[in-house]
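ok trying again, last paste got cut off:
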Amino acid sequence: MWPIKTTVFFFGFIAACALSLVYPIIGIVNYMMVYMLNPDKMWWGKPLDSFGLRYSMMAGVCLILGMIINAKRLPRTRGMFSGWTILLILFVAIALASGLIGYGYSNYSMNILDKQVKVTIFLLCLLKLATTRRNFTIVIWTLVIGTMLIGYDAYSAPADDFFAGRLNFVGGPDFRDSSGLAAHMAAMLPLAGAAFLATPSWRWRAMAAISGALAVNTIIQCRTRSAFIGLAAGLAVALIMAPRGRKGRIYVALSIGMIGAFSLTDGHFWNRMSTVAQPAEYSTDDTIESRFELWTVAGMMFADHPLGVGVGKFRDKIGSYRTPGLEHAFSVPKRVTHNSFLLCATELGVQGLLVLLAIIATSLVAIWRTARMAKFCEQPQQLRILAYGCLLSLVIYVTAATFTDRLYTESYWWVLALPICLETAVWREVVARDLTPELAVESEIDVFDGLPATARDARCALG
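nice, full thing came through this time. structure:
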């Protein structure tokens, strides 16, 4: 007899696979939940091991089949490829060719490339499906619920899941370590806040609040400085960029959240976080010292190989830079860069780094465009809140990724893609809206000239 959690998951997963053949957006939900819950590593997933199920592959195949079957009913978008999509494909192409430019391909390299191709395929599906307000909202709530479930697992985690007082072994395959888990949960926090502010239902608001509280608790359990710095950057942007008409509520929510978060912390947490603001102690902290040395080695490697050493080759080539004064860099077992941008530069070269920066910049521009076009849609404040949440999520994740390796993390790419999905959803609403001459006069705009150039182009593209 299976445990209740095993039974609920198994039949829920099978039902979601079947429904995704009819409603492809359910396939997006199914894939995301499998990724975040990671049933292969959970106790309630062990009874299903004998079936040999590959959950992500099954969810992905059903999603793609559903899109093929329902091709005529999928949301219409702005043509085959957007600028962001082209950059994404270019980034993957650079990764695939990196072994030819660098030092070949290892098993580790092939695993990363295989994963990155799968991530890209899912992102292309996401960019097609999550481009209506309804579907985008479904995706946001999927992330909120997934965060809540991960947070509950962290809250109830046994002592064996802690190492040196830090939580590990909770969540999806990309964030089983404390740094990755904290970065992911920190990035999900503003999405939970945006969901809270954007929905009128108090029941759903309660769920978002619980998700946010559990996310904060998980971050504190991880005691990770990279996520702490990311949250600090996100807080600064949150105070500056709060949408008009909601600033008061946002400031109150932030204040309550910070008070609640502070009440969950302890001396050990603040002792660790305080080292960030005490440069004099960097030389006595082996973890910080090793990061500085790894960054130095990464800089040396990039200078020697500006076109990159190849995906997964940093840890293979670091040994050739062993020199006196860099002992800490070689005491780190995994020998990773602990900086996603340096990892990109050393493995994918200057060309990969430039494309990555262009992807991030394009996502930021999409958020700005969304905020500008929202006034031409119904419930513009809701759209601005969602754009605001995407902005904070992106800032937090990108900042945290500067101090840990997130380049090949799937949820990192989700956060980069969400602004593009939201912009396209708003674009569709602007195009679909019937701007009559009377309305145009009342709004003191011309039927076309008052719209952003992107909206004019969209109206022509979608007819």
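cool. The CA atoms of residues 197 and 245 lie 12 Å apart. Strands lie at 162-163, 166-167.
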